[in-house]
Design goal:
The chain is an alpha+beta fold. It has helices at 16-23, 72-78, 192-210, and strands spanning 2-7, 10-15, 33-36, 52-53, 59-63, 66-70, 85-92, 97-98, 104-105, 113-119, 129-135, 142-145, 149-152, 158-167, 177-178, 182-184. The radius of gyration is 26 Å and the shape is elongated.
Length: 211
C-alpha cells in the first residue's frame, strides 16, 4: 500500500513496505515522493482530521487556498512506466568533455571527474530522483536526489563503469543503465617498468658506491 502524509505546505507519498523496511533496519531510507504547494493548493493550515476519502477512493485535502483532490489509483497509473536514464557527458578536472563511448581513455593525471546524466520526464520533471554507482570506486549505490551530476575524486588508475537509476514521480525506479566503461590511465611513474628502471638505477648507484 501507499501512505499519503501531510506536512507544512507539502504532501508526501511513501510505500508502506519501505516504511516497514526502514523500521526493521533492512534499508536506510524510504523512496519518498514529495509534492509541494506548487503542485496543488496545499494550505499552511490544515488538520489531518480534515482530510477525507471520497467513495470513489480519491483523497480530498482542504486548506485556506482551496481543496486538493488526489486520486491515488490514477496517480499511480500516470507514473507506472519507469524512466530511461542516460549518461550525457564526462568532464575532467582540466575542463575537457567526453561523450561516453567504447574505448574511452581519459588523459593521464585526471583523477577527479564530473559525470552528468539525465532522464526525460515530461509529466513531472521536478519529482525525478537519481542514484548512481561508479563500479570500481563506490562501495554501493549513492543517492543523488534531484542532482543530475556526480562528482568523483581520488580515482586510482583502472577501468570504471558508471551506472545510473532514475525514480519517477510515482516512486518507480528504472532498471540500472550503464555507460560504456572508461579508463583512467597511469602516469609514467605509476607503471611497472618505471619502478623497475628506478630500482635498477638504485642498485647500480649502490654498487658503484660500494667500490
Amino acid at each position: 500500500g501507499i501512505a499519503w502524509l501531510g506536512g507544512r505546505d507539502v504532501l508526501h507519498r511513501v510505500p508502506l513496505a519501505d516504511v516497514e523496511a526502514v523500521l526493521d533496519g533492512d534499508r536506510a531510507r524510504a523512496d519518498v515522493v514529495t509534492l509541494l504547494s506548487s503542485d496543488g493548493p496545499f494550505g499552511t493550515s490544515r488538520k489531518a482530521s480534515d482530510v477525507a476519502w471520497a467513495p470513489d477512493g480519491s483523497l480530498w485535502i482542504p486548506s485556506f487556498k482551496g481543496v486538493t483532490r488526489i486520486d491515488p489509483v490514477h496517480y499511480a497509473r500516470l507514473h507506472a512506466a519507469p524512466l530511461t536514464p542516460l549518461v550525457d557527458v564526462i568532464r575532467t578536472e582540466g575542463g575537457q568533455s567526453y561523450a561516453p563511448a567504447d574505448g574511452l581513455r581519459l588523459p593521464a593525471g585526471e583523477r577527479t571527474l564530473d559525470i552528468e546524466y539525465t532522464a526525460a520526464d515530461f509529466l513531472a520533471p521536478r519529482l525525478v530522483r537519481f542514484r548512481t554507482y561508479l563500479e570500481g570506486h563506490d562501495a554501493g549505490w549513492v543517492d543523488r536526489g534531484a542532482e543530475r551530476r556526480a562528482t568523483v575524486g581520488g580515482l586510482a588508475p583502472g577501468t570504471y563503469t558508471f551506472w545510473v537509476q532514475a525514480m519517477n514521480g510515482g516512486g518507480v525506479w528504472s532498471e540500472p543503465v550503464a555507460a560504456p566503461a572508461f579508463v583512467v590511465p597511469r602516469q609514467p611513474w605509476e607503471t611497472w617498468w618505471f619502478a623497475l628502471v628506478a630500482l635498477a638505477e638504485m642498485c647500480c648507484a649502490g654498487g658503484l658506491g660500494a667500490r
